[in-house]
Structure formats: C-alpha cells, structure tokens
C-alpha cells in the first residue's frame, strides 16, 4: 500500500510539473503564468483539475470548425461582396488612425448606416420587441443570460408568435450564463419551431473541460436589416426589478444599414460553431433613411490570434487627443491597459473611468483597490456610480469615436469571453454618448487617493490577493 501511495504521489507531482510546462508556454500574461506554475508545482492535487477547467486562454477548434479560410466561409454563406463594397468607407483625413480597429475586426468600417442609442432596459426591449413583431423572414437572437421570468416569457412569446407567422427563428444562449434556464422554457420554444441551441464551450475534445470560456455576446438581427447589441441580457433585473439593484443602468445600440450585416456575420459564425449549419440569409444591405454614420462591428474572443478586446481598448487610449471616457461594471484591466491609461493622462488627455458603487462581484470590487491609486496619481479620474448598478460597456474618444458593446474592462472580456463591440465614427452620435455619460457622472462620486490609503491593512491584503486572481475572475 505504501509503495502504491508513493507511486500515485509521484505520478501526480509529475503531472503537475508537466502541466506547469504547458502553462508556461500557453498562458498569455506573466501574472497568470506565475500563479499557475507555482500552484501546479506546489499543489498539483488542486492545481491540475483547476487548470483543466480555468487554465487555458485559447479556444481551440472554433476557427477550424468554421473554415480554414475565412473568405471561403463567407463565400459559402452567400455574402454578396459586390453589393457591400460600395459602402466600404475610407477613413476621414481629419481623424486619427482607425485602421488598427479594422485589422482586429477583420472587417471594414462601412458607411450609409444609422445608429440609435438605447438607454436602459425599458427602451431597449420595447424597441427589440417591436423589431421582432415586424420580422418578415428570419430572426437571429443571442444572449449570454436568458431567464424564464417576466421579461424572458415576453421574449419567448414574441419568438413563438414570429414562428407562427412563418418567420425562421434561430436562438443561441450561453450554457453557463443561462444555467438556470428551465427545460420547459426551451422545450416550449423548440416545440413551436424555434431552432434553439446552447453555446457550449466544452463541445469538442480539445475543450472538454474548458468551462471557463463564455459567449458573452448579446445580438438580435431581423431580416439582415436591423441589429441590436449592447449590455442588456434577458432578465427582470435589466428592467430594474431586482430588489438588490432597483435601478439598473445599461446601454444598447440599434444598427441599420451594412453594419447590421456585420453583426449578422458574427452571429452566424457562432451558430456554425454550435450546429455546423449555415442557414440561408440575406446579405444585401438595406440603406436606412438617415444613412450618415461610419460603423465598424468588432467581434473578439479567445479564438483570436491577438487579445483583440484589450488591444481595441489600448488603441482607443493611444489615439485619444482630448479625452477618453470609459464606463464599465467590471474594471480589472491588464497591465497593458493600465499603462495606456496612465500614458494618456500624462499626455494631458481627460481620462475618466466610471464604475459601479455597489458591486455584484466582490472579487472584482476588491481587485480595483489594488491598482486604482496608481492611475489616480497619473491623473486618471475614477468615479463610482451611485444611482444603481452600472452595467453598460461604453467608451468615448474625443468628439467623434464612440463604442457600445458587451466587453468589460477585465481579463474575462479581454481573454476568455466572446464579445462584440460597435464602433461609431460620427460626431452627432458621439455627442449623444457625451450627454449620456455626463448625466451618469452627475450621479457619481469621485475616488481619491486618501480614501484608498486610509483602508485598513487587512483590506489592502485582500484587494491585492483578489487582483492576483484576475486571470480566472
């Protein structure tokens, strides 16, 4: 028995060492690498299972399941590039370089779009449900969280009504985000004729234990003509009906024009990953009545060759000349983003970060106190929203570039989640974002270095420990 136990002990230690080598080669950040290597060598019994679930930052198989060549895949979809090419938009000379965003997105800015800013849940879902009622051919719908509460039941009924009218409905939900969604809810949709699937990150053998990946995108597309995306999920809390968060502050965007097709492309790539099916869709853009906005749809995720969401944020900070304002519910940026924030503030850029006062994740709340003092000293202004829970993911650069999407300012959005962001290069829309954020700032309190320095030692230790766990938050 003793020799057997010794053999098992030696085998586990060896497995921990081998896994540590994989972590050393594969983990993207030095912070994560050190944490995993130390844990795997010192505590292999715990470290190896944890690494199998939380360790990797690359989502294997997604691109190969889609196609080896993206152009071939998009040709397979029947995308009429000759119909879209007239709406590809050259960069205005007066603007700073936006080319990097296009390279990260593998998509171009398009012109002849219209964008509508939707503030908070009532306006957002009223507009989406109106769009669903007007669908003629198909609906594509994807949310990270769907609950079978009052709002979820309204969505279900709209989708079932659409099927009864002869509209094709394709629904994706994340298996982890929507873990509490009942079988009855899904069965009722399927029985009505809705094609409904979960985005399960553990689908292939390469990702068998990778439960740490999430599809955090929220996309609705109607007939390839109109698309919605942003921070809202489907749940009563997004209407301010959660007793813990009686006011829920969030932002969505409605897109009309060629940009809606780019959102459709993001959805269909996810759909193809899950189902290996490519539905017949419309790929000819419908030009809206007020087609003045340049828009880029930038999907990001752990299958990308670069850390797309992090690089998007860093580039926005580097091109800012006058200001960059950022609103995010989860603010645990990596070192590259922190350095870009400091540098922007040192250059004299007006850098403002808006985060919630009341957190729904204590690890993320504690983590912020480990690095906020450093960016405050550089001149970054950090504010905590007081009116309710802030969940919007928005940024504004100078007077022309704004973004609404699903990506938070944390490691999960930068490296583990599939996200999507709409970048709008338009001064009129930027003014709407400015007015919205100014109103948010009026309901916020500034953070000060003295406040952080006055925290007790135990709190500082906890916040630093929490920040060290950022790679798996």
Automatic annotation (TrEMBL):
Keywords from the UniProt entry: Cell membrane, Lipid biosynthesis, Lipid metabolism, Membrane, Phospholipid biosynthesis, Phospholipid metabolism, Repeat, Transferase, Transmembrane, Transmembrane helix
Any Gene Ontology CC annotation: plasma membrane
Enzyme class: transferase
EC number(s) on file: 2.7.8.-
GO biological process, one term: cardiolipin biosynthetic process
Annotated PLD phosphodiesterase domain residues: 211-238, 386-413
Topology with respect to the bilayer: Multi-pass membrane protein
Transmembrane segments: 6-26, 33-54
CDD domains reported in the protein's UniProt record: PLDc_PaCLS_like_1, PLDc_PaCLS_like_2
Superkingdom field: Bacteria
Places the protein is found: Cell membrane
GO molecular function: cardiolipin synthase activity
InterPro entries from the UniProt entry: Cardiolipin_synthase, CLS_N, PLD-like_dom, PLipase_D/transphosphatidylase
Name the UniProt record assigns to this protein: Cardiolipin synthase
Organism expressing this protein natively: Leucothrix pacifica
